[in-house]
Design a protein that fits this description.
This protein is α+β, with helices and mostly antiparallel strands. The chain has two domains: 32 residues; 130 residues, Beta-Lactamase, CATH 3.30.450. Strands 2-1-4-3 form a four-stranded antiparallel β-sheet. β1 and β2 form a beta hairpin. The protein is globular, with a radius of gyration of 25 Å.
């Protein structure tokens, strides 16, 4: 009787193992179902916003800085004393545009000026093609963006954004 039970147990285990192997072969790879992505933390967003406002303040510019996550959702906003009310929406739109397109808004603006086919980008809801939006990257992966509005020129907004990203470069590894 023991030999019969042992043989039956062995046969059952063999069938279960074969079934499990077959099911595993049929199942999609884990990365095809669930994605793992890096994203903008609140702490990082606040550090970038603080550094950006400080970089512009050092140059005498009263700006607003908005930092968004990889989906373009606002994570942090800082508005310097004396920054104009229009800078709130401008900085948000620049950050959203940069995160969405994974490019600087200054480069996008220049591209639309040179390429008539790209000029239609201005019709995408929420896009603002004025310098001052810069993607935040970890390696080659865009995890968000920073947008700045209020300096006397988009190229100057972008310089402040790049200075802020330099200050937090150690955190972007």
């Amino acid at each position: 009787m023991n030999k019969s039970l042992s043989a039956l147990a062995f046969a059952s285990i063999a069938v279960l193992a074969a079934s499990a192997a077959h099911a595993q072969a049929q199942a999609p790879a884990a990365n095809a179902v669930v994605r793992t992505e890096r994203n903008m933390s609140l702490d990082l967003a606040n550090r970038i916003a603080t550094a950006a406002v400080a970089a512009c303040s050092e140059k005498g510019y009263a700006v607003t800085t908005t930092v968004v996550d990889r989906a373009g959702t606002v994570r942090a906003v800082q508005r310097a004393d004396n920054a104009g009310p229009h800078t709130l929406e401008a900085s948000r739109a620049k950050a959203f545009t940069s995160a969405s397109a994974k490019n600087t808004t200054l480069a996008m603006m220049e591209n639309t000026q040179k390429n008539p086919a790209a000029a239609t980008l201005v019709y995408i809801p929420g896009f603002l093609l004025v310098g001052g939006g810069v993607p935040v990257k970890v390696g080659n992966e865009v995890i968000g963006a920073v947008g700045i509005g209020g300096a006397p020129g988009g190229h100057l907004d972008e310089q402040c954004a790049l200075a802020a990203l330099d200050k937090v470069a150690d955190l972007l590894k």
